[in-house]
Every structure is written in C-alpha cells, then in structure tokens.
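job 3f2a | input accepted
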Amino acid sequence: MEYEDLLIDSSDDENVVMPPILNILLEDNNENNELVHLPVYGLVGRVGRIQHIKVVNYIENIVRNYIARDFLMHFRLSRAVAYELINQFEVSDIFIEISNHAGNLKITAEKHILCYLWFVGHESASYRDVADRFGVTISCLHTIITRVTQFIMTLAPNVIRYPTAVEKEESATYFLQEKGFPGVIGAIDGSHIRIDKPMEDPDSYINRKSYFSIHMQGTVNHKMKFIDVFIGYPGSVHDARVLKNSTIYADLRQLCGDAIDDQGPDIAAQNQQVIDNLPREYETNTQKRDEICLQITRG
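job 3f2a | predicted structure (299 res):
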C-alpha cells in the first residue's frame, strides 16, 4: 500500500494528519529498532496538510464584475463605501503591522474587508461557507474577522458621535418641517441581536419572541446616521430599563442643555404622551404604537 493511501481528510484547522500505521511503527520493538525507525522517518516526511479545494480568485473574477446593485445586495454597502473602508484599513496600524510580518501569501486589505462584510452581512453565513468562497482557511477567516473588528472599533468614536450644535439645528429643522415634530434632534429604537445559547444564565437571554438575544439600542439623526449605540443587555430585559441604563440617557443634559431639569426627564411619560398625540397618519403609516420614540428637546 502506498503511503498516500493512508492519508485521511484533515480537520477544519488543517492539523497535520498522522496515518494510523504510524502508531504501529512507533511501538517499542527491541528486536530491530533500525528497521522500525527507517520507514517512520520516510513516512513522516511524506505526511502534510491536506489541500482542500476552494474557490479561486473569487474577488478578481466575480466581485469586481458585480454591477452596483448586486454589490450592494451582497455586501450591504455601496462599492464606494466598501473601498473607502479598504483604503482606510490598508493604511491602518493593524494592517501595516501584519504586513511587516506576513509571508509570501499575504492577505490583501481588499480581501480582509470583503470577507468581513460578507460574513457580518449574511445571517446564515458560516465560517466554512465564507472561507470556501474567498479561498482562505477557516482559521485564517477567524483571524480576518478579529482584525477587521478591531479596526472598525478604532473608527467608531469618529463615526458614531453626538451631534454638534449645527447638526442639532439641521435635525430639528428636518423633523419639524418634514415630520411635524418640534424640537426633535434624534429618534431611538431597539433591536435584538440573535445569539447562541449562553453557557451562563441562559434564561435571562430569552426575549419575548422566545429566542436568545442581546439588546442593541440605536439612536439616529434625520439622515439615519447613528449618533449613539448601546449594546449588551440580555434579551429578557425590558426596553425601558435598557434606555435608563444607557449612555445616552446619562448624557441627555449634554445633548439637550437647559431643557433637562436636574432630576432628569421622565422619558417613559414623555414617550407615551408623544405616541398618544400622534396624528393618525403617523400612527398608521410612519410609527408603530409599540415602538419607543425618544423626543429630545433642543437646548
């Protein structure tokens, strides 16, 4: 039997495969050590990683030829925004550091960002599927996701931020003229991020729709740009509690100035008053009555 016939498929992390016969050859044999060791050395030299078949040049042959609509559909960002991220990542300290230590098969900044966008933009995408599509190993994809996540976190403070005085004025004008709400500079709502069953205290993560999740509370301006994101509370926690413990609640005086008294606003009461007094067209077409609507008065 040829040595190649003894090879079996490797695991996801592509560890070196040791054929079953190797254990026999390594057994202690006092009768003839030389005869045992000689084939072992030869066999070990023949064993290596299994080369899995993957999609080759998916970015070069497919992605770069996507029309704008298809690119947006697959990556959830326009091509211009995606490649702006790629350019920023390419000159970031994170990418420069790995480039200085990379071997001959360096993963490009383009592949980093596109892998990441595909992974986070498709709820059903698994590590195996994305790794196969972009021609990388599963362990490499995990590293890519970690690197790009770290990079995105460095951008967050400059992208997700409270509005300036001029931006508040713009938002207030829009909400008044287009939506009929006076003194509003932002809108807030919550969402549930689906997660796997946690090892610790899993019941607290079951939301009202009976799946495991964590809360994400987002606040946007009139351009639908995030000005605050608050994530982390277990899915079973009520929205009002999440709001009251969020950073934006603690910073309302900074956002609203003298309109907020020293005791802080009664957000729940204000929200219900706003919802109860909504014009019928807003109640039916623009708003859902069970949504949390935050009215922030300009200072």
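job 3f2a | The mean pLDDT is 79.
job 3f2a | closed
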